């Protein structure tokens, strides 16, 4: 996995397994932004991340993260259709990633959370300001280039977009 894609997956791991679990891993490694740390974290948590994604129940997920503000959100999502839900969710995520106000809001939330990390507040804030904009841009590019719903097996892979085609094209290692 390329260095430029790794921070996006680290952010997903933090969301999936929770800050406490990931923070415990970071205390053992002082090179928080480094390539080695990223690879080690992915080796440790990638399987768990994708297992957590597979456990997502659309209605519960939306309620938990406040995405169900109006009933129309589910109007085009068939009950029990993981693929349709995945595609719908990715559309929502992409629209948020393209919104500069949403990026600013994410950074504000993370900076606020940094104040909870005793002894590392300034380091955390520096990492947020340095890496989150890059993670968001790279995340957006990754989602545009990849059929994530097929990668997490929520949808059947299209003939052109199999995992082997991603590797052959170098998409997972490409500059984001």
From TrEMBL:
Domain Saposin B-type: 79-159
Swiss-Prot/TrEMBL keywords: Aspartyl protease, Disulfide bond, Glycoprotein, Hydrolase, Protease, Signal, Zymogen
Keyword Hydrolase listed: yes
Highest taxon in the source lineage: Eukaryota
One annotated GO molecular function: aspartic-type endopeptidase activity
Keyword tRNA-binding belongs to the record: no
One annotated GO biological process: lipid metabolic process
Descriptive protein name: Saposin B-type domain-containing protein
Native source species: Eragrostis curvula
């Amino acid at each position: 996995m390329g260095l430029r894609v790794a921070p996006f997956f680290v952010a997903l791991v933090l969301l999936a397994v929770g800050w406490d679990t990931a923070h415990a891993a970071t205390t053992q490694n002082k090179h928080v932004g480094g390539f080695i740390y990223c690879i080690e974290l992915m080796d440790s948590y990638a399987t768990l991340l994708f297992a957590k994604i597979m456990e997502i129940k659309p209605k519960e997920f939306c309620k938990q993260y406040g995405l169900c503000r109006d009933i129309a959100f589910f109007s085009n999502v068939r009950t029990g259709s993981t693929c349709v839900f995945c595609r719908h969710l990715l559309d929502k995520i992409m629209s948020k990633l393209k919104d500069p106000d949403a990026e600013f809001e994410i950074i504000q939330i993370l900076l606020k959370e940094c104040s909870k990390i005793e002894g590392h507040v300034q380091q955390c804030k520096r990492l947020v300001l340095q890496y989150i904009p890059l993670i968001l841009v790279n995340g957006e590019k990754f989602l545009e280039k990849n059929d994530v719903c097929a990668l997490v097996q929520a949808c059947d892979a299209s003939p052109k977009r199999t995992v082997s085609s991603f590797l052959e094209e170098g998409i997972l290692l490409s500059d984001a």
